[in-house]
Amino acid sequence: MPRFLSPQFLLFLLLDPRLNKLRYGAALGIFLAILVGGSIPGARAQIGDYAPGVLLHSTAYSVLALLWFTASRGSAASRSIATVLAIAVMGAIDESVQSFFPYRGADVRDWMVDVSSAVTVCAILWLVLPKASLQRS
Questions:
Q1: What's the alpha-carbon Rg for the chain, to the nearest Å?
Q2: 134 within 8 A of 76, measured Cβ to Cβ
Q3: Lowest mean pLDDT: which of 2-6, 19-23, 28-32, 90-94?
Q4: Taking 70 as the threshold, does the pLDDT of residue 2 lie above it?
Q5: Which one of 55, 87, 113, 132 has the lowest number of neighbouring Cβ atoms within 10 Å?
Q6: pTM of the shown model
Q7: Is there a contact between 122 and 67 (Cβ–Cβ < 8 Å)?
Q8: Confidence (pLDDT) at 61
Q9: Of the candidates 18, 108, 24, the residue with the CA atom closest to the CA atom of residue 66
Q10: Does the pLDDT at position 50 exceed 90?
């Protein structure tokens, strides 16, 4: 198995407090890529041939939630609140930007999928991550 797929390396990427800023940066970079990619005429329609919008939103915002939660500090509860609020804001911005384009449209159901994905990821991480790693960061 390649080293970059080993569980120890993946845990290092997700839990090492020295990489918190990198994880925040990655989350913001991915979010900007979502905004830009979604603004390209016809791009969303082409991607829709391979994956429905619910799958795209849930996958993208789950990854954002994973990065935000693991970059945050504090208890699992405070990390979860911060993550869900951040994802709610990002999702609202995404839907707002879409409303400015005639070939796109804002949909509150997409925003609800974004927030639901964040809640689900936070619940899973709260249960799965070792308590020591949550208190250490």
A1: 16
A2: yes
A3: 2-6
A4: no
A5: 132
A6: 0.88
A7: no
A8: 98
A9: 24
A10: no
Contact 95, 57 (CB under 8 A): no
56-63 contacts at long range (C-beta below 8 A, 24 or more positions apart) = 57/91, 57/110, 57/113, 57/114, 57/117, 58/113, 58/114, 58/116, 58/117, 60/30, 60/34, 61/87, 61/90, 61/91, 61/113, 61/114, 61/115, 61/117, 61/118, 62/117, 62/118, 62/120, 62/121, 63/30
Identity of the residue numbered 16: D
Residues in Cβ contact with 26 at an 8 Å cutoff, skipping those fewer than 6 apart: 67
Render pLDDT for 61-120 as a digit per residue (tens, 0 to 9). 999 999 999 999 998 999 999 999 999 999 999 999 998 888 888 889 999 999 999 999
Q: CB–CB of 27/64 below 8 Å?
A: yes
Domain boundaries, the chain: 3-136
57 near 51, Cβ under 8 Å?
no
Task: Specify the residue for token string 């509150």.
Answer: 108
- The tokens describing 42, both together, are 């016809």
Burial of 124 (0-12, 13-18, 19+ CB in 10 A): middle
Rounded to whole angstroms, how far apart are CA atoms 22 and 26? Answer: 6
